[in-house]
Amino acid sequence: MRLHARWTMVPFAALVSLVGTATAAGAAQCGNSAGGFEAWKQEFASEARARGVGPTAISALMSTHYATATIAADRGQHSFRLSLDQFLAKRGGAAIVSRGRSLKQSHSAMFASIEQRYGVPPGPLIAIWGMETAFGSQRGNQNTLSAVATLAYDCRRSAFFTDQLYAALTLVDRGILTASTRGSMHGEIGQTQFMPKNILNYGVGGNLDVTANALASTANFLKAHGWRAGAGYQPGEANFAAIQAWNAASVYQRAIAHIASQID
């Protein structure tokens, strides 16, 4: 894996203008099967045009397909019901700690630069990196726009993913994503698996497939969610809330804190 010790920080916050709340999205009707997806796309595209989404993004939206694999993954997240020990075993916690300690040493200058800027030490960043993509080796091969569009159409979490879809379309119009961009099952992108709206709000440095950009963006996310330099990040400590903001699953949160403490 190629890591970059130097990079230019360019915030994406200015790109949020087209991302609104799901309640303003209009009347496109959600569904629970593939049957209504094409009609939903037509309705959503009309609403998106009315909100200023450009032709490039509309064309990309119309090229999406109903992602059956995404729906299956969304319904099958059983590992979040495991105990902490079971979850760590299933997700390779010991291997993440071992590789993470090595990466912390070999790329100490990069981590020191990130910590100086954002106040986040290496451990939580490395834990998230290892947990999300096995240090970049498992970033997914699902079409990102199809995944997000499918989940925006699906009734289970339509409001959340409608916001994500508008963010993704904004990123397409800005040339940051394309109709062929690939990532994980729910539309996560890059080394630490940012959702489209989080790319707009917290992405720095450019391409999040570049490790330095992804880790700096992750630190920026944590700082924006209350991370305080020098404070603890175990359950009950000040910075644990920022880890909770990263992922809603309690066992995931505790796993990140545990792995990070072993690395730090």
UniProtKB/TrEMBL annotation:
Residues 37-233 form the Transglycosylase SLT domain. GO terms for molecular function: peptidoglycan lytic transglycosylase activity. Residues 1-24 form the signal peptide. Keywords: Signal. It comes from the Bacteria. Coiled coil: none annotated. Pfam families: SLT_2. GO terms for biological process: peptidoglycan catabolic process. The keyword Metal-binding does not apply. PANTHER family: LYTIC MUREIN TRANSGLYCOSYLASE, MEMBRANE-BOUND LYTIC MUREIN TRANSGLYCOSYLASE B. This is Murein transglycosylase.
